[in-house]
Amino acid sequence: MIGKRKRETNIVSRSTTAKGDEATTPATNDTSSSHDIFRKFFEAQFQPLEVTDAHTTHHQGSKDGHVADESDESESESDWTGISEDADGNNTVEVVEHRDSSAIAEEPMDKRVRKAFMTSKPPSFSVKLAPVKSSPTKDDDDGDDVANLKNDLALQRLLKESHLLESSSDLAPTGKNRLKALDLRMQSLGAKSSLYHQNMPSSHRRGIKAKAEKKDDKRRREARENGIILEKPTPKSKPSVGRRERGVGGPSIGKFAGGSLNLSKRDLSAIQGPGRSGKGKSKRRR
Amino acid sequence: MATSQPPLRFTGHKNFVYRLVFATLTGRTVHISQIRPSSPINPGLAPHEISFLRLLESVTNGSQLEISYTGTVLVYKPGLITGSSAGASSGGVIRHELPAGCNRGVSYYLLPLCLLAPFSKAPVKVLFTGPGVITSSTPTGDMSVDSVRTAILPLYNQFGIFNNIELRVLRRSNPGFNGRGGGGEVQLVFGHQVRLPKTLHLMNPGKIKKIRGVAYAVGVSASNNARMIDIARGILNPLVPDTYVFSDVSSAPLVPAPEKSNPSAKKKIGLGFGLSLVAESSTGCLFSADVASPPTGGQPPEDIGKQCAYQLLETISKGGCIAPAAATTMLGLMTMGTEDVGRLQVGRDVIADEGVIQLARDLAKFGAPGWGLREAAGENELGDVVISVVGRGIGNVGRKVA
C-alpha cells in the first residue's frame, strides 16, 4: 500500500489581533467599565478624549494567541503584553497548510480497484463494476418452468442440429437446412427412415457410396500433402450383426429367388443342427 | 510442404524475433545471414536469440533450425504451432529456462509468443524460469511484465481473443549485475485459439479517462514505491483524477551461485525498483510507460516516478489509437486476420518509427499486401494517419477443418 497513513499535520498561523473590535472579554470588563466612568466624568468636566484602547487589544491579542497555539506558557500571561503591532486594518491573514499528500483520503473503492487490476488476468478495462441487479422475484415458478422448458428444447435442438448451421448466428434454419433439420427431428420422434433415404438399385447406391469415399480420400490426401490437419475420419458404422427384420409370410430360411428356394450350406447346417462329430451320439439324439 | 518455396532471405539481427514469428505464421522458410558479422567478440546470435529459437522449437512441431558455425547465418524452416500438448510434463506446461547471461526482459519472449499463441493448435502454457528472467523493464528497451499484462494483452480482446488468457508473475526480478540475469518466474497461459482474428477498425482515439499503474520494488525498501507513486501521482493527478498506482513489494530472488568452499551457496540478484503506468482512453485504447532503476543504481525513486509519468504523457501525445510498443502486435494480428480491410489510426510519430517501417518491409517480403496510408479525416484527425491493412486470410493452420 501507499505507505502508512501519517498523522495529518496542520499548522495554521493566525494573526494575533482579534478580528476587528469584537471588543471586550469578561476578564477585562470591570476595569474597562471603571475607565468608562472616569472618562465620562472627565469629559463632562473638560473636552472629549480620543479613545486609546491599545492596552485592551494587546491584552486580548495575547489571550487569542494562547488559544491558537495551545502552548504551555500560561504562567507568563501576566508579564507578556503581546506582539506589538502597528497596522490592524489591512492585516491579511496568511494560512499555511502542511498536509501529507499520500494521506489524501483513500476511498474504500481502492480495494476493489486493486482487485480488478492486480490479477493475473489482463484487466478488463471496459467492464464497469455495476451493482448486482436483483432479479424480479414476483415471477411465478410456472412462468420460469415454461421458459426453462422452452430454452431446454431450443438448446437440445441446437446441439443436435448445430452441424447443419453455417454460422452459429441463425438458430432458425431456412431452405435446405430447414428440411434437413425437420428430417432429423422426425427421426428423433421415431420415423423409420430418413426422408432422404431413397429407394434405388443397389448398384446405384454402391456407386454413390464409392464416389463419396473417393472424394473424401482425395481431400484427405491433398490436405496431408499441404500440411493441413483435418478432423479424424468418423468410424464406419458396421451393419449390425443381429437378426435382420424379415417380411411376414416369407420363407423363414433360405433365399427365394426366381421361383425357387435356394438353401446355402449354412442354412443346411442350421437345419441339421449341431453335434454331427460324434456319430453314435448324434444318431441317438436324432 | 508439397509446395516448396525458396527461402526468404534477410540480413542483420534487427527485428529478429518478428521475422521468425511471421515465418512460423506464414509457413515460409527464412534464411537470415550477416547476424552481427563484424562484432569482434560476440559475432553471431546472442544468448537471448538462441533462447528464443529454443522457445520457438518447443511450441512448434517439426521446425528445423540450421545455424552456421559462427552463428552468423540461420536457416529456419517452420513447423506447425502446436502449443503445449497435454502429454508434456507437469500438466502440459512448457518449462523454458533462460540463461544467466540474458540481458533482455522476459517481455522480449512474451510479446512474440503471444502473437503466435492465438494460431496454435492447443493452448499455450509456458513457464519462464531460470537465472535469466527479468520481469522489470530493462535498459535494452523491453517493457515490464506488468505492462505486457495490462497494456498488450487487453488488445487481443479487440480481435475476439479474450478467453483464458493469464500472465502470472510468480516471482519478480529486476536486471541483475551489469544488466544481465534475473531470477524471476513468469507463467503465460494463452488458452484462446481462433481460426482467424476479427477484422479491426480502430479510428477513434478518444480521451484518456483513467490511469493505472504498478510500482514494484524487488529486494529493496517499500518506501521506494511510495516515493515513485507520490511523484507520479503529483504529475498525473491534476490531468486525470482517476489515477491509481498500486505497489508490489517482493524479496529478492535467490539463485544458486556455487563456490569452491560452499557448493550450495546462493546469492541475491535482481534488486531494484520500477514503475509501469497504463493510460486507457474512453474508446479502449491503451498507452503504457515503463521505467525501472538502472542496474548500476544511483537514481532516486523520485526521478523514476517523474520519468515514467512524463514518458506516459509523451506516449499519449504521439496520438493515434495505439502506443508504439503495441504497434507490432496490432499490425501483425491485423495482417494475419480475415481477408478483409482493417483500419487503424496511428500517430505520425508512431508510424515514422524505425521498427514499424521495418515491420512493414518484412511483412511485404512475407507476401502480405502493402499497407494503405491516408490522412485521417473527420473529427478525430489530429494529424494522424490511417493505416489500412488487408488480412491474409490464412489464419490458424492447426485449426483448419476444411
Automatic annotation (TrEMBL), chain A:
* Cited Pfam families: FSAF1 (PF15375)
The record's Gene Ontology biological-process terms are: maturation of SSU-rRNA from tricistronic rRNA transcript (SSU-rRNA, 5.8S rRNA, LSU-rRNA)
InterPro entries (UniProt xref): FSAF1-like (IPR027973), Ribosomal_biogenesis_FAF1-like (IPR053030)
The UniProt annotation puts the region (Disordered) at 1-36, 49-148, 192-286
Sequence ranges of Polar residues compositional bias: 25-35
Q: What are the Basic and acidic residues biased-composition ranges?
A: 52-69, 210-225
- Gene Ontology cellular component terms for the protein in this record: nucleolus
Task: Please give the name of this protein.
Answer: Uncharacterized protein
TrEMBL record, chain B:
Domain RNA 3'-terminal phosphate cyclase stretches: 9-338
Q: Which domain of life is it from?
A: Eukaryota
Q: Which GO terms describe its biological process?
A: endonucleolytic cleavage of tricistronic rRNA transcript (SSU-rRNA, 5.8S rRNA, LSU-rRNA)
Q: Name one GO cellular component term.
A: nucleolus
Protein name (Swiss-Prot/TrEMBL): RNA 3'-terminal phosphate cyclase/enolpyruvate transferase
Give the keywords, sorted.
Nucleus, Pyruvate, Ribosome biogenesis, Transferase
Q: Which family does it belong to?
A: Belongs to the RNA 3'-terminal cyclase family. Type 2 subfamily.
- Its principal location? nucleus
Tell me the InterPro entries matching this sequence: RNA3'-term_phos_cycl_insert, RNA3'_phos_cyclase_dom, RNA3'_phos_cyclase_dom_sf, RNA3'_term_phos_cyc, RNA3'_term_phos_cyc_type_2, RNA3'P_cycl/enolpyr_Trfase_a/b, RPTC_insert
RNA 3'-terminal phosphate cyclase insert domain boundaries: 204-317
| Gene3D superfamilies per UniProt | RNA 3'-terminal phosphate cyclase domain, RNA 3'-terminal phosphate cyclase, insert domain
The subcellular localization recorded is: Nucleus, Nucleolus
Write one Gene Ontology MF term.
RNA endonuclease activity
Which organism was this protein described from? Aspergillus coremiiformis
Q: Which residues form the signal peptide?
A: none
